[in-house]
């Protein structure tokens, strides 16, 4: 290490990097206290990098769309002195930025735009945005130059790994998110250990599995404990949105404990149904060997739902309940996250909230900070609902952007006691959101076509009535035939109606765009 000048990141080993990171994090409570105080030096750096261990990489177009999914953060520019640096892999269409700034209530869009710095790497290749930034010291220096005061600024990532830690060090600002050293708590294996410590109910099964032989042993133990089980889940430790899940069929097998059971289970593993069709069995098992995973019983019943609870621990150590959602799942085995309805059904929202608080108290004791979500499976037995905790997501997720969009637009709050979201005027609001409105017809629409449709049909979010549709992942509409949207209404039924009308209008417009036109003769 050089004595006269500060070292470079590359000159620090992992221990030294965490020592620097810890010193930066000590500043975060003071930064937190300064939020929304009108401090002209306050700023935030948003780096929506999906630093995830994927079996199959996303396309460049979808990677950019996922990074743009967090443009709802621009709504924070309602704070008249806040400055923001928003970083993406490639340049965002200016029309999309204008769209978000037009949603700002009570703010002149040009005033907000003057406080927004958009930085693009100009690199559409596969890979995490954070990794692309760390490979470009000059670009990092540019971002540093856009921060008015590093003591009044913090980094907002999507998820946290050692790369996000390094990015915080390079920028010289603290990070509002879970410490990367706590990453194991958010894996499928780690969360089962947290559930045990919290004393909540979760599916029977085994964790820290790496080989097919260990999976066979785990399935054997599961069948001994649950002889009537008809299927089981094999989940990769770091799978996201259901893409790392597989269903193992347990029907028609030799009796539990029989001599033939192990061979039959090996055959079922070789034929398991993967949630992501783009992944082969061999690739799935290779990722299992690399990152490990779990086996758990598949919760079934007459009525099964998949709600979640979102919470946060502030830099001051305060645990807050933020929201509950009913997740909309799809895919081959119904394990893929497609969207959500908010709030969750009040019939079980208090039940899962109470369980989530117990889990979160364990997480808080271990030092977790920032936003996170806990997923459940609930099963109705007569009039009563029974909950099973299944996952902890120590990161932002699919319910983060629709909920914060609603909150930033209305200034409302979720009341955990009544399981309702109320605006400051006491009016109830609901939402239906998706990241997966996909249709080949949508390839026929451009971003400009979408905005023209929004203007003509009146589906744009109406500030006066506090209802309408907010679109996201807009750049994916042409290349990927996919767009996200959040439909807001005064009731669950109205939110569903707003959503359905938007979906119908989009399909009709896309169909019209693809209809052959007479030749110009």
Provide structural commentary:
With 521 residues, the protein is α+β, with helices and mostly antiparallel strands. It is built from 17 helices and 20 strands. Strands 10, 11, 12, 13, 14, 15, 18, 19 and 20 form a nine-stranded antiparallel sheet that branches. Strand 11 and strand 12 form a beta hairpin. The longest helix is centred in the C-terminal third of the chain and has 23 residues. The mean pLDDT is 94.
Fraction of residues in helix: 25-40%
Low-confidence stretches: none
- Shape label: globular
Total helices: the number is: 17
Radius of gyration: 24 Å
Query: How many β strands by DSSP?
Result: 20
How much beta, percentage-wise?
15-25%
Largest sheet: 9 strands, antiparallel
* Average of pLDDT: 94
Structural class: alpha+beta
Tell me the span between the first and last alpha carbons.
Answer: 75 Å
